Every structure is written in C-alpha cells, then in structure tokens.
C-alpha cells in the first residue's frame, strides 16, 4: 500500500473522532525527535497493517501545541517529509477528548509509564515500545517491548518492517526517513549508544532510504536542534523538560514526595548567564519557571562542547523548603556522576549577583535518562 505519512495524517485530520474510545500512540513528555518519530511511525505502520480499521491509532505529541516550535530539529525533519504542525495531534487533543468523556487507550512509545498531565487523560495502556528502564508496569500490554538501544525508532521500525517484509512490502520513503532521522540524532550517525536493534535498522535504512547521506543529515538535524537563536530563558527551560515524582516511605521527608523537573539544555551555564542578563536575572527566570510548574526542585542539565571537549554540568534550583534535600541528593549521586565540588555548601545561594551552584559532571555518559533514576534512588534513601 503506497500511502505517504502525510496522506495518512491528512486522513486522520479529515476523520472526526466519534467513537467513545480513542486509541492513541503517545510519545514521552520531553517530545524529542525520537518520541515524535516513534509515535507517528507506529500509528502510520499500524494503519498500513490494517487500513480497514474504522478507528485508526492517532499519534500524540505529548506537549502543548505551542511548544513544538521550540524543537527546531523536529520541525525541520517533518518539513522534509512535507508535514506541518496542522497535521499533528498534541496533548491538548487528549484533553479535549477527555472532556468529551471518551476513553483513551494508549500505546506508549519512548517511555513505559504514563506520568503527569497525560496520566489525567489516559484510561488504559494497551501497548509499549520503549528503550528506557523498565518500570514493570502494564504487563498485559501487547506489544510490550522494552529493550536497551540508542533510539526507540529502531524498535518501532524493526517491529513493523520485519513483519511486513515477509509479505513483500517496501516501506515508503518518508516513513523510513522519519525513523532514520531519530536514529541518526540519538546515536550520532550510529556511532554512540548503538545496540543490535539500531544496527538492524541501519541496514534497513540504507536499503530503503538509499539516497540519504546519513553523515550529512545527522549534521543538519543537530544544527537545527542546537539553533536556539531568539529563545528566552523560559523557552530554553521548557524546550527539553521532563518532570518526575520521587517518593520516600518516610513521610516526614517533604511528605514522602518530591517533584523534580529536569531541563536539558545544550549550552553551558556561563552561556546562559551571558545570554540572559547575568546570574540574578537567570536565577529569577529559573525560580519563576519552577513556580509556574509548581515543582520542588528545578534541575538544569547542560551539555556542550568547550575547548574541544564534550562537557556536562548539573545545577539544582530548589525551593526554600527543599534546599537541604537537594544538597543531600547531590551528595548521594556525587560518586556516580563524578561531580566536582560536591561537598561545597553553596546551594544556599544568597546574593542576586551570585552564580548558582553548578557541578561539573565528569561522568559525561550519564544523560537525564540515566541520572533521573539515580536521583529517584537518592531521594528514596534519604
Ligand atoms: Mn528515546
């Protein structure tokens, strides 16, 4: 069946939702290229598999519509396959269906636990394809594929294509390109965090999207992702943001619960100070964002190249009530993250002109995906 991804999305947009149960494919709330590509391609391939389905799966981008423009790599890749924002569905759509009293059944891609806002809307999880740590939930979901690899799209693409190929199907170029783009971005052209599912797909991509210069396209995507010209501090904080609820059995510790938001940013803290009016102004923006999100601790994880070296920093901006908790958590993850200055007590930032306490993270392999579970443990063990 030769249906483009664009035609598929057009068709979804043209088909009003009338059933009491809506089935969606939902990416994670950071809504990175991997999540978006996984959600769209899963829904698309599912439709290829059964185009007679009266109620096809709808791909959901797990952020408000207005936030898509902050993800320039995604906008770029989608434009390359002739898809604009109008053809997409967002968390706003799930909210609307919920208000219309519809059941929402979800396949989760690129995460394996429904959290935060999506949790208010999703009635039931019916499938999972993911490459994060298995939280052990939804044991009856089908499929339930959770496997370590560089890109979740590798799992989605191989899940469908291996099945289809036996039936003589050649995947459409745009669907392949979409998955490939996330694969390239997540593994830097299949050179980092590559596992066997990624390699399997790399071969398939080379076959079905022969014309794409992988090395060059990787650069194009990275450049678009790193293009943050014109962004405000708030834009940068929400561009790649995930929120976590950590728990502790001891209710005397912040009522046994800590809400942490982690913003991943591709510039150094010094760059942020410079760009956004100095330490006082940046700090004020961070506190404002923490208040807006109604969370206990805002954590900024920066990653950037300086002096030819890839570097990471971690910075916490805790509420007054959780400052002591933030300090203890930092101390607990210090060995794992190989933090410098970890016993310096500067979390009590006082003066407005003072910089935030930032830690150089020598363990540069640990991104948010690895760090968040460690922080969860650290809180649990306080
Ligand atoms: Mn992913």
TrEMBL record:
InterPro entries: DDH_dom, DHH_sf, DHHA2, DHHA2_dom_sf. Its cofactor is Mn(2+). One of its GO terms (cellular component) is cytoplasm. GO terms for molecular function: exopolyphosphatase activity; metal ion binding. It holds the Pfam family DHH. The keyword Manganese applies. Residues 218-379 form the DHHA2 domain. Signal peptide: none annotated. Keywords: Hydrolase, Manganese, Metal-binding. Coiled coil: none annotated. PANTHER family: BNIP - RELATED, EG:152A3.5 PROTEIN (FBGN0003116_PN PROTEIN). This is Exopolyphosphatase. It comes from Maudiozyma exigua (Yeast). The gene is PPX1.
């Amino acid at each position: 069946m030769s249906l483009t991804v664009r035609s598929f999305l057009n068709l979804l947009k043209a088909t009003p939702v009338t059933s009491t149960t809506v089935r969606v494919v939902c990416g994670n709330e950071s809504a990175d290229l991997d999540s978006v590509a996984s959600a769209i391609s899963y829904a698309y391939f599912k439709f290829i598999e059964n185009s007679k389905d009266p109620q096809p799966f709808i791909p959901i981008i797990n952020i408000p519509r207005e936030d898509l423009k902050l993800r320039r790599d995604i906008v770029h890749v989608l434009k390359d396959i002739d898809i604009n924002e109008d053809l997409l569905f967002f968390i706003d759509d799930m909210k609307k269906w919920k208000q219309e009293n519809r059941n929402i059944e979800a396949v989760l891609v690129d995460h394996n636990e429904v959290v935060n806002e999506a949790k208010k809307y999703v009635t039931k999880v019916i499938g999972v394809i993911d490459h994060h740590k298995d939280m052990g939930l939804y044991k009856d979901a089908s499929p339930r594929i959770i496997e370590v690899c560089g890109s979740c799209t590798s799992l989605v693409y191989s899940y469908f294509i291996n099945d289809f190929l036996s039936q003589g199907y050649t995947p459409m170029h745009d669907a392949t390109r979409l998955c490939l783009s996330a694969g390239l971005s997540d593994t830097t052209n299949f050179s980092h965090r590559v596992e066997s599912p990624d390699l399997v797909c790399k071969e398939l991509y080379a076959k079905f999207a022969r014309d794409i210069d992988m090395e060059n396209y990787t650069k194009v995507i990275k450049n678009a992702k790193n293009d943050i010209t014109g962004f405000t501090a708030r834009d940068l904080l929400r561009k790649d943001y995930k929120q976590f609820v950590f728990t502790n059995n001891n209710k005397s510790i912040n009522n046994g619960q800590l809400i942490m938001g982690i913003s991943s940013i591709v510039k150094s803290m010094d760059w942020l100070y410079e760009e956004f009016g100095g330490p006082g102004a940046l700090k004020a923006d961070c506190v404002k964002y923490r208040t807006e999100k109604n969370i206990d601790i805002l954590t900024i994880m920066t990653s950037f190249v300086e002096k030819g070296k890839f570097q990471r920093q971690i910075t916490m901006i805790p509420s007054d009530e959780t400052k002591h908790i933030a300090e203890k958590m930092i101390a607990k993850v210090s060995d794992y993250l190989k933090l410098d200055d970890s016993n310096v007590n500067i979390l009590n930032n006082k003066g407005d002109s003072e910089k935030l306490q930032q830690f150089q993270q020598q363990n540069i392999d640990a991104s948010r995906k690895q760090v968040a579970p460690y922080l969860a443990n650290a809180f649990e063990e306080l």
